[in-house]
Amino acid sequence: MTTFNLPCDVEAVFYQFPHCEFATLGKDGIPIAWPTCPLYLPETGRFLITASIGWPQKAFNVRRNPHVSLLFSDPSGSKLSHPPAVLVQGDANIPHEVVTWNDDLERVWSLLYQRRPAEGSAIIPSSMDWFYMRLLIYITPRRIRWWPDGNFERIAQEIEVSHVG
């Protein structure tokens, strides 16, 4: 279990931002970032993103180096007024299984449908069933930094995340 002691406006970002930038390190050590739709799992203190087995580069990078980050910097579509920009730095873990359905993946698809209805309701042709075969990437935060009002010229506030149990 992880304990967070975050201001409400920071936690609201995790629930309301429709996407964030997920950064991993490539084979050559250069950071690579992808826009993604993260699911915040407050009951475990983690975040979940997924990768299709058809596009597994995120998973390859995480298995090689688990240090990752999530940057919530673009509030478009969040309906939040002047939210902070939030950087989550942590360690990623990928279970050794391909998942087509479980409780966490059901939550991911529901969230995607809520946040991005045009994409969430897209019909994937049966020849692309691999799209629904997902690798689950769980991110456990080590540090969370935020910039009030999303202003990177201000000094960031931060907490180190404590892990209990």
Concise summary:
This protein is 21% helix and 36% strand.
Q: Which value, in Å, is the CA radius of gyration?
A: 16 Å
Number of strand elements: 10
**CATH topology group:** Pnp Oxidase, Chain A
CATH architecture verdict: Roll
Topology (SSEs and partners):
Layout: E1 2-3, H1 8-16, E2 20-25, E3 31-36, E4 39-41, E5 46-52, H2 57-64, E6 67-72, E7 85-93, H3 103-115, H4 117-120, E8 134-147, E9 157-160, E10 162-163
Antiparallel strand pairs: 1-10, 2-3, 2-6, 4-5, 5-8, 6-7, 7-8, 8-9
Structure notes:
By secondary structure, the chain is of the alpha+beta class. The chain has one domain (2-163): Roll (Pnp Oxidase, Chain A), CATH 2.30.110. It is 21% helix and 36% strand. The protein is built from four helices and ten strands; from the N terminus they run βαββββαββααβββ. The strands form two sheets. Strands 2, 3, 4, 5, 6, 7, 8 and 9 form an eight-stranded antiparallel beta sheet that branches. β2 and β3 form a beta hairpin. The mean pLDDT is 90.
Task: From the structure above, extract its key features.
165 residues, globular, alpha+beta, 8-stranded antiparallel β-sheet, single chain, Pnp Oxidase, Chain A, two-stranded antiparallel ribbon
